[in-house]
Amino acid sequence: MKLFIYVLGILILTLGISFTIQSDLGTSPFDALLVGLSIHVGFTVGTWEIIIAFILIGCNSLLKRQKPEVLGLLTAVITGISIDMWLFLLETLHTPELLYSKVVYFGLGLIVIGLGTAIYLHTNFAPIPVDRLTLIIHELTRTNIFLSRSIIYLIFLVLAMVFKGPIGIGTLLIVCLSGLILNYFMSFTKKVLEQAS
């Protein structure tokens, strides 16, 4: 059951990511980097998800001076495959061209990302490497989680700009609103999952 909820959460999360990418209004700094690399270097967005996760697992291992968290790679592989699958399906079904449809896609994406992340996090199954890096920076710098996350977002934002990823008004909205949306869905999904078990 735990594995099913974990995979379901990732499938919902990646659908949300794909909606924001398709909206063309801007994505999270991390997703903007993946799209930029895909367009200007090659490979799919999902493949870059796996490659960057592999690099982050290595960095996390060095920073913590411990064995690499291989389970994080499992999450990255499932996430990468799911992003490519959803992007293919969305491109096949409908690509938003008018502003209102782009806004609808982006809004849906923002909400669906929050829901998927909340479901996935409740399983506490395999860490996403970027989330682990946030906690490591938090430990090493003795700052709060918000500042640690902001440092990572800034690094990915600079890299996304270098690789000309889709940075826009949506990027700013994701950075500002994703925490609030996640916070709402964390309590909502906890009640639903507790009732289901």
TrEMBL record:
Keywords: Membrane, Transmembrane, Transmembrane helix. The chain crosses the membrane at residues 33-58, 70-90, 102-123, 144-163, 169-186. The keyword Transmembrane helix applies. PANTHER family: INTEGRAL MEMBRANE PROTEIN, INTEGRAL MEMBRANE PROTEIN-RELATED. This is Uncharacterized membrane protein YczE. It comes from Salimicrobium halophilum.
